[in-house]
Fold this sequence. Notes:
This protein is mainly α. The protein is built from 6 helices and no strands. α3 (29-43) runs antiparallel to α4. The longest helix is centred in the middle third of the chain and has 47 residues, at 70-116. The model is unreliable at 124-142 (pLDDT under 50).
Amino acid sequence: MASSVAERDEISKKYDFYHLLGLDDTADESEIRRAYRKSALKYHPDKNKSANAVEVFHALSIANEVLLSDSLRQEYDNKRNAKKREKERQAAFDSRRRKGKEDLERREEEASARMRNGGVSSTGAATSSSTTNAPSNGGGGRGMKRPAGWNGQKEAELQAKIARLQEQSRVLRERRDAKLRMTV
């Protein structure tokens, strides 16, 4: 039975041919034939009345065809290995992303705890206002020091000023966009 390329690709997305036949990827032709006969008897629609028997039997036929053809098997193995590498790469990326997220959450929690404690660090020691790593200008830069005499009220005033400036900026952008729309 000669299957189309699209049909083979569709089935290979759903099933791992080696796993379907119960083989490892170093199986030779006789092992493939033996495994196919055994699985085909098990899933043949005349002998197996389960709902997916026809689909599995069809997948077995395609797996047999692909694994017995040298060129098709090489192509399948290349795609399969590429999928494995991509899955490993994605897992490594997810791991780094998860670590970064956990680190960020930990630092945010520490900063939040410092703010709740009024400048007291998580170890219980009072922080010096001149050595705190919080930005003094609201710019979010790392390692910037607060000036001596900095307190929570000044922080609140600064945040309020930033909010006013952002609002003014938004209003100005809306006016500019309205003028641009009128000229078009």
